[in-house]
């Protein structure tokens, strides 16, 4: 593990962690809406949430580039207060979070749907408010699935490549995550040892996250997360 490798690994972990922390509340709200609410356009919302799973990642990155450009609908307000996500690690976290969102929503939604509504109904008949039922019954019972969704999102963020490189480019020390570093090393003759080390680190981190996510899912009684 050279200093260069440590920089790449640390940057990848930081981007993935920030992506999950920012995306998790959004994923939870969307999962609650899709699991419990009934409203017009629910199927459309479900389709939009899962769209990053089927869109080419490069398209997602291009759309982010348009949205967060200095004159874009989201970039212009940010530029007015001196904030820019282009070619920054924060932009890489946004791209990773968007690509991880569908998997997180699905895991959390399944965990919420697995909560027995009779328990919630019994608590309501005993005088508990909707908020108290949600806080003391729904969330604790769904917590393993929520944790599984977060870990699964972390694993997906670690492997994000297409949207990230399109949106924030390949800048060593700033946006060069493990997948981008592997791609860059593959372009250099004689870099097989570096590629092997980076690939091994990626496999170990991703496998650990997937195993943890599966364990949390089974502990919470949630099947078919993937």
Query: What's the Cα radius of gyration?
Result: 20 Å
Stretches with pLDDT under 50, minimum 5 residues: none
Query: Quick one: how many beta strands?
Result: 0
Order of SSEs: HHHHHHHHHH
Keywords: Cell inner membrane, Cell membrane, Membrane, Molybdenum, Transmembrane, Transmembrane helix, Transport
Pfam families: BPD_transp_1 (PF00528)
Main location: membrane
Protein name: Molybdenum transport system permease
Explain this structure.
By secondary structure, the protein is mainly alpha-helical. It is built from 10 helices and no strands. It is globular, with a radius of gyration of 20 Å. It starts with a helix and ends in a 7-residue tail after the last helix. The relative contact order is 0.16. Pfam families: BPD_transp_1 (PF00528). It comes from Sphingomonas glacialis. This is Molybdenum transport system permease.
What is the gist of this entry?
Belongs to the binding-protein-dependent transport system permease family. CysTW subfamily. This protein has 226 residues and is an all-alpha fold.
SSE inventory with pairings:
Elements: H1 3-36, H2 42-54, H3 57-68, H4 75-80, H5 89-113, H6 117-125, H7 130-158, H8 162-168, H9 178-186, H10 192-219
Question: How would you describe this structure in keywords?
Answer:
cell membrane, 10 helices, about 230 residues, mainly alpha, Molybdenum transport system permease, about 0% strand, globular, MetI-like
């Amino acid at each position: 593990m050279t200093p260069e490798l440590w920089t790449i690994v640390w940057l990848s972990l930081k981007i993935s962690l920030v992506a999950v922390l920012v995306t998790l509340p959004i994923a939870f709200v969307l999962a609650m809406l899709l699991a419990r609410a009934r409203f017009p356009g629910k199927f459309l919302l479900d389709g939009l949430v899962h769209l990053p799973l089927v869109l080419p990642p490069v398209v997602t990155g291009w759309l982010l580039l348009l949205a967060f450009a200095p004159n874009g609908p989201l970039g212009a307000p940010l530029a007015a207060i001196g904030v820019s996500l282009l070619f920054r690690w924060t932009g890489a976290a946004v791209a990773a979070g968007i690509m991880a969102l569908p998997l997180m929503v699905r895991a959390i939604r399944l965990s919420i749907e697995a909560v027995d509504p009779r328990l919630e109904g019994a608590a309501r008949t005993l005088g508990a408010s909707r908020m108290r039922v949600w806080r003391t019954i729904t969330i604790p019972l769904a917590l393993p699935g929520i944790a599984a969704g977060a870990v699964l999102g972390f694993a997906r963020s670690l492997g994000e490549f297409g949207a990230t490189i399109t949106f924030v480019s390949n800048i060593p020390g700033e946006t060069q995550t493990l997948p981008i570093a592997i791609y860059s090393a593959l372009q250099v003759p004689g870099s097989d040892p570096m590629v092997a080390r980076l690939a091994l680190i990626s496999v170990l981190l991703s496998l650990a996250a997937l195993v943890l996510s599966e364990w949390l899912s089974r502990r919470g009684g949630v099947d078919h997360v993937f």
